[in-house]
Specification:
Elements: E1 12-18, H1 34-37, H2 41-49, E2 51-55, H3 66-73, H4 78-81, H5 85-92, E3 102-114, E4 117-122, H6 130-143, E5 150-157, E6 160-166, H7 203-217, H8 221-228, E7 236-243, H9 251-254, E8 266-269, H10 273-281, E9 285-286, H11 300-310, E10 316-321, H12 323-329, H13 333-356, E11 361-365, E12 383-389, H14 402-407, E13 411-412, H15 418-423
Parallel strand pairs: 1-10, 1-11, 2-13, 8-9, 8-10
Antiparallel strand pairs: 2-12, 3-4, 3-6, 3-7, 5-6, 11-12
Helix pairs in contact: 5-10, 11-13, 12-13
């Protein structure tokens, strides 16, 4: 794939997304956030050469999910472009959607019965393997049906799977609408789920499928083996994040006025289908990296090496790290710190060597949203970012964290407008 056509090879750009890394002060760290507590010498050195600021990536009225927040971070106004999380993931799996079809996120989860009601014990079913998930999904496809519409379940990665409901005949009632409300299961870790169940148009369909999956999974061979091994079973599916076919402008077209190249090429490194889907929609290629898991055991160094190599051909490379977000959802501050230190010590060195070998380059480090360990879910507060490289005059900051970013005069109330500043020559 050819990169920039500029005579000097063009400026190289890197976006590093440590998903959900921003946080609130943590008592076990003496009131410091994980970003403040982690030892990150490479990022601190970059902060001294660049600027730190804040962006509000989640517009008022929208949920602070990675789907909404990532669109904002990458320069797309979510209020204009967002159609739902599941359709973005469907793109990543090359699932073709018709204009009236609905894609639905299908988590494998573990619910626990208590005297007060069911609680969300694990929104990942104990980080069930993809192979185990595929067996459960196969059972759903062989058993569950809808009267007027085609229903298909698709295996994704681990607990992250999809369901697609195809439009039936022209006379059947609309399945869902804007008043169909669903809740992300990761928002209810260790909480009662009665208030999180689907409501509105089509809720009866979603609830029936969720309830029928309980019967199918009870006593399923996959769950018997997991229980025998001391692991959590997948007690049912959790349906949420539904939406219709999305459409995004290609990145090179979206930012044509500020890019120096007419042939601007990009790539994405991620273990998460949501980011793969967004990348595909904006015209970026998928950079496959062995050993990446979407969890704290991912191969950070491989991400850095593959990104460095991709810069030889591409103008911009985006590296998404899910580990920091997963640690936040687990309420594990130590895991979040470890992930940040691995990003700094393993991912960044090969990447920085490759960037600095170019005459012109820029690097942006920013989470999409906060995932505070105290809450175990996403929040809508502005996120801190670090921008450095060619043409960027450094400010007085010597560290990158929530506090230094909050003190910065550089704040994007509309977070989606920040990307233009990062790219502009």
């Amino acid at each position: 794939m050819s990169g920039s056509t500029n005579a000097d090879g063009g400026r190289k750009y890197v976006i590093l997304i440590p998903d959900g890394c921003a946080d609130f002060p943590v008592s076990q760290f003496g009131g410091k956030t994980p970003l403040q507590y982690a030892a990150m010498p490479n990022i601190d050195a970059l902060a001294k050469t660049g600027i730190v600021g804040c962006s509000a990536n989640v517009p008022v009225g929208l949920s602070p999910g990675s789907d909404v927040a990532t669109l904002g971070l990458l320069g797309y106004n979510p209020a204009e472009y967002y159609t739902g999380r599941a359709p973005l993931e469907a793109v990543a799996q090359d699932i073709q959607l018709g204009n009236d079809d609905w894609a639905i996120r299908c988590n494998l989860v573990t619910l626990q019965e208590t005297p007060q009601g069911e609680i969300m014990q694990s929104f990942t079913a104990g980080h069930i393997s993809t192979e185990e998930a595929a067996e459960l999904i196969d059972t759903l496809n062989k058993t569950l049906r809808l009267e007027e519409n085609e229903l298909t379940f698709y295996t994704g990665v681990s607990y992250r799977n999809l369901a697609v409901i195809r439009a039936g005949n022209d006379n059947c009632r609309p399945l869902f609408s804007r008043n169909t409300m669903t809740a992300p299961p990761h928002d209810y870790t260790d909480k009662l789920v009665a208030t999180a169940l689907p409501t509105g148009d089509g809720a009866d369909i979603l609830l029936r499928l969720m309830n029928e999956s309980k019967k199918l999974f009870a006593g399923h061979p996959v769950n018997k083996k997991r229980i025998a091994a001391g692991k959590l079973p997948a007690t049912q599916i959790w349906l949420w994040g539904l939406g219709k076919k999305p459409a995004l402008l290609p990145f090179s077209q979206r930012f044509a006025k500020v890019l120096a190249s007419n042939n601007f090429s990009g790539g994405m490194i991620t273990a998460v289908d949501l980011l793969r889907g967004i990348a595909s929609l904006i015209g970026w290629r998928q950079i496959e990296v062995p050993g990446i898991t979407g969890y704290v055991d991912t191969d950070y160094a491989a991400k850095g090496r593959y990104a460095a190599d991709a810069l030889k051909d591409l103008d911009i490379v985006c590296i998404h790290v899910e580990a920091t977000d997963e640690a936040g959802h687990e309420g594990d501050a130590a895991k979040k710190v470890k992930a940040l230190e691995d990003i700094d010590g393993k991912l960044l060195p090969p990447l920085l060597d490759a960037l600095c070998s170019n005459k012109e380059w820029r690097l942006l480090i920013s989470p999409d949203h906060l995932t505070p360990v105290a809450l175990k879910t996403h929040t809508s507060e502005p996120v801190p970012w670090l921008m450095c490289g060619s043409g960027i005059k450094p400010d007085s900051n010597v560290q990158y964290n929530e506090e230094t970013a909050a003190q910065s005069p550089v704040f994007f109330k509309d977070g989606w407008k920040m990307m233009e500043t990062f790219l502009r020559y």
